[in-house]
Amino acid sequence: MKELEKILENAKNEISACEKSADLANVKAKYLGKKSELQELLSKMKDMTVEEKKTIGKEINEVKQSINALVENKNKEIEDKILNEKLESEKIDITLPSKKLRRGSKHPMSRMVEEFEDIFVSMGYTVYEGLEIESDENCFQKLNLPIGHPARDAQDTFYLENEIDRFLLRSQTSTAQVRAMEENKEKGPIRIVCPGKVYRRDEDATHSHQFMQIEGLVIDENISMADLKGTLELFCKKILGEKTKVRFRPSYFPFTEPSVEVDVTCFKCGGKGCNLCKQTGWIEVLGAGMVHPNVLEMSGYDSKKYQGFAFGTGIDRFAMFKYGIPDIRTIYGNDIRFIEQFDRKDED
Questions:
Q1: Residue 113 and residue 196: Cα distance in Å, rounded?
Q2: Which of 21, 226, 265, 300 has the most beta carbons within 10 angstroms of its beta carbon?
Q3: 54-84 as b/e: b if 16+ CB within 10 A
Q4: pLDDT digits (tens, 9 = 90+) for 43-66
């Protein structure tokens, strides 16, 4: 027993003095290896009685377990010390300034669409998204533009494969209005706005073969031009400022009757006359009118019971007005320098 106590005491001292994992491994081999003193004691047990074997064997195992525990604790202590020294020598000063991260920017068209939608949703409208590939029937015929109608010439363009297939890239978001009316099986009131891309054969500083439109449609009983005028006046003031004045001029659209062109006072000169408004003090911004009875009837509505109004405008045009963009083609040019500047403009 005294010999076992001495072995355990010596092991404690040597393990405690270890500073490296290699030294600890040598000490472990010395006290627990095949040539250790404990192993020699175990080899002598063959000459002992059964009772002595039980007692001595138990004591030897307890000493081995104690030494193993001491080795494990010391090994963890050494590993923690190494880790702390590494963390101390390789630590990062988080107070240093970081590399500048580039922040993404919203495209001006995304900004305008969100602004338009917010205004109309606050007025009780629902945002409705139509299809960009449409049938000739929905794009023209159900909007009171039959085949051969002269008003189709400016829009009757991007057909798929050939005109006989009668599918094309939509030339106006009014096609979404047709779908919304047909999907309304109850044929009850509708109040929607339809933003999206449209396609026409245009290409210059103020026109593009692809651009963004937003159309509005209201159908209900006892709808009049007064409702249309009030809606558009509120919309224009929200977008262009409370001092904006709105003017209606008679016009012609096949799908509305009566139809009007809507002008607003020039936001640059306030209506005094400048180069932007060509000295007139007014800028045309959208077209509108009362929904033609034929359009209502073709989509299943009783034109004697229901009336409605519709309006549409180019979102690109409002973006050009608001942000001072001189050429519509830069909007779709994918130049990051162009997009980044609008964060500053919105803050101003």
A1: 9
A2: 265
A3: eebeeebeebbeebeebbeebbeebeeeeee
A4: 777 777 777 777 777 887 888 888
As a whole number, the mean pLDDT across the chain is 84
Q: In terms of DSSP bridges, do strands 190-199 and 210-220 run parallel, antiparallel, or are they unpaired? A: antiparallel
* Structural element, H or E, at residue 190: strand 190-199
Q: What is the rounded CA–CA span in Å between residue 346 and residue 341? A: 9
Q: Please answer whether residues 184 and 190 qualify as being in contact, where contact means their C-beta atoms are separated by less than 8 angstroms.
A: yes
Q: How do residues 252-289 score in pLDDT, each as one tens digit?
A: 998 999 999 999 988 778 788 887 788 888 988 899 99
**What is the tens place of the pLDDT at every residue in 223-253?**
999 999 999 999 999 988 888 899 999 999 9
Contacts 24+ apart (CB under 8 A), 320-326: 320/206, 321/240, 321/267, 321/283, 321/285, 322/112, 322/239, 322/240, 323/108, 325/108, 326/205
For residue 209, the 8-state DSSP code is S
pTM: 0.65
Q: For residue 61, give the H/E element and its range.
A: helix 50-89
Joined together, the tokens standing for residue 296 give 């209502």
The DSSP secondary structure of 272-329, one letter per residue, reads S--TTTTTSSEEEEEEEEEEPHHHHHHTT--TTT-EEEEEEEEHHHHHHHHHT-S-GG
Residue 347, both tokens:
């803050």
Per DSSP, helices labelled H in 94-224 are 108-122, 136-139, 174-183
In whole angstroms, what is the distance from residue 282 CA to residue 42 CA? 110
Please tell me the distance from the alpha carbon of residue 231 to that of residue 288, in angstroms, as a whole number: 11
For every residue of 91-126, DSSP letters joined together read: ---TTSPPPPPPPP---HHHHHHHHHHHHHHHTT-E
The pLDDT-based confidence of 1 (bands split at 50, 70, 90) is low
Q: How remote is the C-alpha of 341 from its chain's centroid?
A: 20
